[in-house]
Write a structure and sequence with these properties.
- The structure is a single chain.
- It is globular and about 40 Å long.
- Helix content is 25%, strand content 28%.
- The chain has a four-stranded antiparallel sheet.
- It has a single domain, classed as Alpha-Beta Plaits (2-Layer Sandwich).
- The protein contains three helices and four strands, in the order βαββααβ.
- Strand 2 and strand 3 form a beta hairpin.
- The longest helix is centred in the first third of the chain and has 17 residues.
- The protein is of the alpha+beta class and 115 residues long.
């Protein structure tokens, strides 16, 4: 049985920086983006993939419902809320986020979705 605070929705943001800016952007994104998100979402995960010349970041936030997500993101939860310095760091500004319904959770997810 799913509790009212169980994550049912994942909101996924992706962005890429030049490798030379990756460490600085990771700190900036955490301080000005992820921390705010952590106060609203059930849980947040951040991922980083260093490639040749660029680094991709992905932030996944977990929500109990679309309504809960909309209370944070606005009526259109796919809309991007760029941080003030995103244009300085990112190779291109993302135009939307991906929203997925969580169909099943198998095994121990490490409490990730509990914040």
């Amino acid at each position: 049985m799913t509790s009212p605070s169980s994550p049912r929705i994942a909101r996924i943001w992706r962005g890429r920086t030049p490798s030379a800016k990756a460490d600085e952007y990771e700190r900036y994104n955490y301080e000005h983006g992820v921390r705010t998100l952590m106060a609203k979402a059930l849980g947040v995960q951040t991922f980083r993939e260093d490639r040749d010349g660029e680094t991709e970041f992905m932030t996944v936030s977990y929500w109990a419902s679309m309504e809960a997500m909309k209370s944070f993101a606005g009526e259109d939860p796919t809309r991007i809320h760029h941080l003030p310095r995103d244009a300085e760091f990112l190779i291109e500004l993302p135009t939307s986020v991906q929203i997925l319904r969580i169909a099943n959770t198998h095994g121990d997810t490490g409490g990730t979705a509990r914040g």
